[in-house]
Automatic annotation (TrEMBL):
Record-annotated active site: 157
Family: Belongs to the NAGSA dehydrogenase family. Type 1 subfamily.
Coiled coil, from the record: none
Subcellular location: Cytoplasm
InterPro entries reported for this sequence: AGPR (IPR050085), AGPR_AS (IPR023013), AGPR_dimerisation_dom (IPR058924), AGPR_type-1 (IPR000706), NAD(P)-bd_dom_sf (IPR036291), Semialdehyde_DH_NAD-bd (IPR000534)
Enzyme class: oxidoreductase
EC number: 1.2.1.38
Pfam families: Semialdhyde_dh, Semialdhyde_dhC_1
Native organism: Phragmitibacter flavus
Statement: the UniProt record of this protein carries the keyword tRNA-binding: no
Residue span(s) of domain Semialdehyde dehydrogenase NAD-binding: 6-149
Zinc keyword on record: no
Protein name per Swiss-Prot or TrEMBL: N-acetyl-gamma-glutamyl-phosphate reductase
Molecular-function annotations in GO: N-acetyl-gamma-glutamyl-phosphate reductase activity; NAD binding; NADP+ binding
């Protein structure tokens, strides 16, 4: 009898669903028992993703409609939800009631406060009663609460790119209480696999655009986590940009150091926080991360610099939005929640 965890991917035909499948197909402790899609229900998985023809487990899978009964009948023990936000509760509540662990990639369970969700998402939270059960699962920063958790909320892609560099510095009280500014660039897969004119090749290629100002919805979870780290209200502004690449996020953060704090203190704090953490690579002073070194992997690369002329600390990060920003982080959380080594199925994947 297999001792592998039986996993389902709900929303398996999307970009983060596809990356989840790629990682889970190679995961030695996971057996994929169900993959859902409304559009492809009844179709073999490899008809939609021919790259996996001949791959054990992939060949035998057929998309099913997203249906709780089907997930239960397949023997699912852990369900990864890779659905557009606003839908996860429809699945999470009945799955949790059936004793099935839920690892959600959407924004639905990231916030502890339902009013904050409404302020940023424009509608009341559909299942506020579940918020207190959920763990905000950024493994390098909240790892202690992940083991054994039943409802895991994976952070957003942009938030991961900001929180990894910023949270240790706020916890150590190294930053001035002045506004922090952030600019990020994301590949087009960040917008999902939907048909939408602004994301067509001819609309995005050879062009870069800012969007989402002044209140991108990710500021809700970033603010929540930065305030928690600092123990005070942290002011932050954020401008995302869409760039014509498939995958990757490059983030640049400008912040002021407190009086007497040096770039050396920043380096010491980051190195102390991330020593032994396999997926955070600290590049060093004046070293600029590059998405080409992280795409396809679960790494986040971080660099820093102190601009003496402007008196500003510059923090830089690069990650793959679909992997460390979504599916890789979800698998990392799966590993930690089940007590598997953190890197299982993720090394270079
Ligand atoms: N793309 C990224 O970089 C990141 C995405 N995320 C989050 O992950 C989640 C998935 O994102 P992404 O993969 O980009 O999205 P996609 O649009 O690429 O995929 C969405 C998936 O959900 C399914 N789906 C859509 N509507 C419904 C519905 N009403 N009921 C059931 N299934 C549905 C789709 O299949 P079908 O329509 O056939 O049912 C598809 O499989 C989102 O919440 C997103 O915010 C998080 C971090 C980064
Ligand atoms: C390029 C692009 O459009 N990126 C998406 C963010 C990615 C995402 O899916 O975020 P959630 O997990 O919070 O939904 C956006 O800015 O809305």
């Amino acid at each position: 009898m297999s001792t592998k965890v039986k996993v389902a991917v709900v929303g398996a035909s999307g970009y983060s669903g596809r990356e989840l499948l790629r990682l889970l197909l190679l995961h030695p402790q996971a057996e994929i028992v169900a993959v859902t899609s409304r559009a492809h229900a009844g179709k073999p998985l490899v008809a939609e993703f021919p790259r996996w023809r001949g791959v054990a487990n992939a060949d035998s899978l057929t998309f099913v409609a997203p249906d709780i009964a089907a997930l239960k009948a397949a023997g699912t023990q852990t369900a990864f939800l890779a659905l557009p936000h606003g839908l996860a509760h429809e699945f999470a509540a009945p799955l949790l009631n059936a004793g099935i662990q839920v690892i959600d990639l959407s924004a639905d369970f990231r916030l502890r406060n339902a009013a904050l969700y409404e302020a940023f998402y424009g509608h009341p939270h559909p299942a506020p009663e579940l918020l207190s059960q959920a763990v905000y699962a950024l493994p390098e920063l909240n790892g202690e609460s992940i083991a054994g958790a039943q409802l895991l909320a994976c952070p957003g892609c942009y938030p991961t790119s900001m929180l990894v560099p910023l949270v240790p510095l706020l916890r150590a009280d190294l930053l001035e209480n002045s506004p922090i500014s952030v600019a990020s660039m994301s590949g087009v897969s960040g917008a999902g696999r939907k048909e939408s004119v602004p994301f067509l090749f001819c609309e995005c290629n050879e062009s870069v655009r800012s969007y989402g100002v002044p209140k991108h919805r990710h500021l809700s979870e970033v603010g929540q986590e930065l305030d928690r780290a600092a123990g005070r209200h942290v002011r932050i502004s954020f401008v995302p940009h869409l760039v014509p690449v498939n995958q990757g996020i490059c983030t640049t953060i400008f912040a002021a150091l407190r009086e007497g704090i040096t770039a050396g203190d920043v380096e010491k704090t980051l190195r102390g926080t991330y020593a032994g953490r396999p997926f955070v690579r600290l590049l060093g002073t004046n070293q600029c991360p590059d998405t080409k070194n992280v795409t396809g992997t679960n790494f986040i690369d971080v660099g820093w610099s102190f601009d003496e002329r402007a008196g500003q600390l510059i923090l830089m990060s690069a990650e793959d939005n679909l992997i460390k920003g979504a599916s890789g982080q979800a698998v990392q959380n799966f590993n930690l929640a089940h007590g598997f080594p953190e890197t299982t199925g993720l090394v270079l994947g």
